Design the sequence.
């Protein structure tokens, strides 16, 4: 199992829109493609309090590439993402990192 950490840096004041988009739009579409989330976080205390951080769980990079490609080109996703950006972008940038658990990690 590998984990993908993704960090969405919200435009000022737009974090609530990102949270709503994930809850109401993204997660139901992910369910359709069997994309597994391993958790979502916002920053309680720290410098980046406009960030949404989440983890996705993948069996392999091949699974990730296949499912992410299908998701990212889904017509419903593309339309609803555009709807959220209608009044300007809600995300200033996205970063992602692929993580491999150690042999002593509690997640293996």
Sequence:
């Amino acid at each position: 199992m590998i984990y993908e950490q993704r960090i969405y840096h919200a435009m000022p004041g737009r974090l609530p829109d990102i949270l709503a988009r994930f809850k109401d739009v993204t997660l139901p579409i992910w369910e359709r493609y069997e994309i597994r989330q391993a958790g979502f976080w916002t920053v309680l205390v720290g410098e980046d309090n406009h960030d949404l951080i989440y983890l996705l769980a993948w069996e392999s990079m091949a699974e990730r590439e296949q499912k992410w490609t299908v998701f990212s080109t889904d017509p419903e996703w593309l339309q609803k993402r555009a709807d959220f950006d209608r009044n300007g972008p809600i995300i200033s940038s996205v970063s992602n990192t692929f993580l491999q658990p150690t042999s002593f990690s509690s997640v293996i």
